[in-house]
Amino acid sequence: MATDCAKSLLYKEYGDPIAVLQVTTQTIDQLASDEVSVKWLLSPVNPADINTIQGKYPSRPALPAVPGNEGVGEIVAVGSNVQNLCVGDKVVPNGPNFGTWRTQANYNFKDVSKIPSYLSLVEASMLNVNPCTAYRMLKDFVPLKPGDSVIQNGGNSAVGQLVIQLCKLWNYKSVNIIRNRPEIKELKDQLAALGADEVLTEEELRTTQLFKSGKLPAPKLALNCISGQNALEVSRHLAHSGVMVTYGGMSREPLTIPVASLIFKNHSFKGFWMTAWTKENTESKERVNMFNDLALYYKEKKLQTPLHKLVPFNEYQEAIASATKFDGRTGVKYILDMTKS
Ligand code: NDP
Predict the structure, then answer these.
(1) What is the pLDDT of residue 50?
(2) What's the whole-model pTM score?
(3) Thinking of the domain 130-275, which architecture would CATH place it in?
């Protein structure tokens, strides 16, 4: 028996998000005994959401589908067999492709995780993907010690801003590459305020003496979310036996690896996908520890959310259009405010 209605964004075919997304109203089924009903509050718009709607992402949900990989919601009803969750609890998805761009839906209680009450809604809405990606890439590929350098491109991306802050917390030196722009000083200052040790434009990277001069040790770890020529330039600065971890391809160009890099510098090139890590580690101690650490950093104000802008759900097109822009330069992470529908 249907009891209530919810609004959602829906796509029936893969394609340009602005063209294929439509607002629909759906009935919410009566709650099963092992389900909770979640009213979604905030849901970020991430590049992976856009790529999924375009049909260009490895996860291809069955159509029709509701987009939205992460978000924060409030439990508004609980089934009779639900354990450890109550009405009023704030929850986040416990896995990918959750379909959070909707106002309300029912889920098995094991598919959502309660978040500590001290997390703000914005912090919670962006907890699952970007902070975890930054955390894992810094922990899992190279044993870093205080004073070691990490270099990354996309230094101003949401993931990049979290990498900067975690490096600061863990005493690694972060070297952050960004694209040049008219307001470059403001952006450099912003990233420095987050804890960036060095912020260089792509052009400055080509001629920098930062490592040759001994000011900073050559980086053992490079994080690449741009690929193309940018990543090639970054890789030239890796220390001997250093590792480049690729987690994005925002330039839409392939990653080119110089032969000398492999033969003479013993560089390794690896990839990281948070979705795959989460699938393999859903119940792991590492995952629990990671969420505890991140929540604590937010609580102690040692971590701040990437620059963002809340957009009312009924004005979703602004957020989608901006996140879909071919040449980037968005400036902020858009978050859909599902309460304004
Ligand atoms: P943001 O939207 O916050 O940042 C995007 C970044 O990409 C900015 O630094 C932007 O720079 C740059 N950029 C955008 N378009 C281009 C372009 N055409 N050429 C060069 N640079 C460009 O993104 P997120 O931090 O959320 O994600 C960053 C990347 O990481 C994405 O590719 C995303 O899919 C990926 N990702 C991967 C994960 C994984 O598990 N593998 C997990 C999380 C994210 P500018 O300001 O100059 O435009």
Answers:
(1) 95
(2) 0.96
(3) 3-Layer(aba) Sandwich (3.40)
Active site residues: 57
- Check pLDDT > 60 for residue 2: no
The reply to whether omega before 131 is within 30° of 0 (cis) is no
Pocket of ligand 1 (CB under 6 A): 46-48, 129-130, 133, 154, 156-159, 179, 225-226, 247-248, 250-251, 272-274, 327-330, 333
Mean pLDDT of 26-30: 92
**Architecture of domain 5-127+306-337 in this structure:** Alpha-Beta Complex (3.90)
Q: Measure the CA–CA gap between 323 and 44, rounded to whole angstroms.
A: 11
Domain boundaries, the chain: 5-127+306-337, 130-275
DSSP letters, 238-258, are PPTT-EEEE---TT-B-----
Joined tokens for residue 14: 């893969």
In sequence order, what are the residues at sequence separation of 6 or more whose Cβ sits closer than 8 angstroms to the Cβ of residue 293?
A: 135
